[in-house]
Amino acid sequence: MKAMLLKRLLQLITVVWGVGTLTFILMRSLPGDMAYRIAASRYGQDNVNSEAAALVRAELQLDQSPWVAYWHWLTDLLQFKLGDSLVSGLPVMDSVQHMLGHSLLLALSGLMLSVLIAVPLGLLSAWRGNPLDSVLMGLSSAIRAMPVFVVGVLLLLFFALHWGLFPVAGFGTPAHLVLPALTLAISLAAVSNRVVRDSAKHTFQAAFYRFSRVKGLSEWQTFRQHGVRNIAVPVVAFFGIQLVSMIEGIVMIESLFSWPGIGHGLAHAIFARDIPVIQGSALVMGVLFVLLNTLVDIICLWIDPRGAKA
To answer: Quick one: residue 49, left, alpha or beta (phi over 0 = left, psi -120 to 50 = alpha)?
Structure first.
């Protein structure tokens, strides 16, 4: 456990430095006048001219060398300072904290819904002799082939525009959360239900599982005592891998539904060339990825029957 936590700590440090550096390089490499884009975000596209861009460039010291700017960012990072937004002037930490709360709400809601969808369907597919297996796997493959924004658009067309059951976009009420969370859940469940199915099939066909039936245990007792934990280990481990898809999905879903999370804010910051907000958002997402993977590893160690016996 200590070795795993030390490894994750080193990974966290590497991710923070790597994500921040790569973001800095990519944003500085984009074509166009950064000062003009920032001025357009501040004052509006119709109110920007070369004089306004020059004032912004002088105010934010955008004409300093990249090495100097990078050094200033690195020294601030070592002091746990993310700087101020180039557009609004507000501290990046405050903006990221506000956006992160909405993103975590969406992510947790989508993840819980995906578990409620994937686990029953995966177990149903794995049940021996089930004729629904081919149908469910075909449907899963079809959804898996769709980009997450296509799933979101389809849900918008039917549940928001055609039937009017939920709002099209925005936030403020529980109804605004339903379609974004359902979009994320369906995209995640289309992959994870196959992992549940394969893990359950492997467990159901294992010698120890069949032997427990020979000992006289009922089907439910066998599943509860010998099936649940053995099925759960690869499923939980896969959810750690799926965090990448979840982060990617959140960025697109928040932009599609105008959900005020970190993905939506990141998209606006990229358009406005607001480098501190971009770096802060990317850093927070990278840190979350490492922390959640560490949590998944700990859960796997806890539920693994082999680890429990050891």
So the answer is: beta
221-263 pLDDT, tens digit each: 888 888 888 888 888 888 777 776 677 778 889 989 999 988 8
Residue 168 CA to residue 159 CA, distance in Å, equals: 9
Are 307 and 301 in contact by the 8 Å Cβ rule? The answer is: yes
Nearest to 236 by CA among 202, 198, 206, 196: 196
pTM: 0.81
**Residue holding tokens 């949590």?**
295
Is-contact 207 161, C-beta < 8 A?
A: no
Q: What is the distance between the alpha carbons of residues 196 and 200, in angstroms, rounded to a whole number? A: 6
| Distance, CA of 300 to CA of 294 (rounded, Å) | 10
CA distance 290 to 247: 12
> DSSP states of 110-142 as a string?
HHHHHHHHHHHHHHHHHSTT-THHHHHHHHHHH
User: In the block, which residue shows the tokens 């995209």?
Assistant: 187
